[in-house]
Amino acid sequence: EYIGFNSAWGYWLAGILGNVATIMLLFSTLGYFFPIFKGGNNVASIVGASLLLWTLHFLILFGIREASIMNVIATIGKLVPIVLFIVVMVTAFRWDTFTHDFWGEGTISLSAILGQVKNTMLVTLWVFIGVEGAVVLSGRAKNSRDVGKATVLGLILVMSIYILISVLSMGAMTRGELSVLETPSMGHVLEHVVGPWGAVAINIGLVASLVGTLI
C-alpha cells in the first residue's frame, strides 16, 4: 500500500508539474500572436490559463464525445504543420550547411559527448511522454498483441519524426544560428526558409498540440 500511495502521489505531482510546463509553453507561443502573453509567465498568462483550464473542464463535463472531437481536431492541427515542416526541410536541405564545422572546434573527448547526452536526457524523455497510451487502453483491445505492436509503432514513429526534424534543421541553418533560436525553434527555422507564414503555421500547430495535451 505504501508503494502504491507513493506511486499515485508521484503521478499526481508529475501531472501537475507537466501541466504547468505545458501551459507556460502554450501562452509563450500565444505571445507570438498576442504580445500581452509574451513569456508565458506573467499575470495575463495566469488569468488566461485559469480561464482555459475551466473551459476544458466544462467541455469534458458536457460529455466524452465533445472532448474526443476536440482531441481529433488538435491531433490534425499538430500533424499538418509537422508534415509541412519535414517536406519543406527536405527540399531546402543543403549538404554544405549540414557538414559545416560538423565536429565542432577543438578535440573530441568522451566526457564531452557524455555531457551532451546528459543535457539532452530530460528533453528526450519529454518527447516520448504519452507513448504508453496504447497500454492505458489495453483493456479494450481485441488482441493483447495489438497493444505491444501499437506501443512499438508509436515509439518508432515519434523517434523518426524527432530525428527528421533535428537533422533536417541542421541542413537549413548552421549550428550557431540554431543554438540562439527562441522557443518554438521549429517556427523560426521554417520562417528562415519560407518566410513569416512558416512561423505562423508552426505556432498554430503548437497551440493545437498543447491544448490537446491538456484535454
From TrEMBL:
InterPro entries recorded for this chain?
AA/rel_permease1, APC_superfamily
Main subcellular localisation: membrane
Parts of the chain that traverse the membrane: 12-37, 43-64, 76-95, 120-138, 150-173, 193-214
Q: What's its membrane topology?
A: Multi-pass membrane protein
| UniProt entry keywords in alphabetical sequence | Cell membrane, Membrane, Transmembrane, Transmembrane helix
Question: What Gene3D superfamilies is this protein classified in?
Answer: Amino acid/polyamine transporter I
Q: Name one Pfam family in it.
A: AA_permease_2
List the GO cellular component terms: plasma membrane
As for subcellular location, the record says: Cell membrane
Could you tell me one molecular function GO term of this UniProt entry? transmembrane transporter activity
The protein's name in its UniProt record: Amino acid permease
- Tell me what organism the protein belongs to: Bacillus cereus
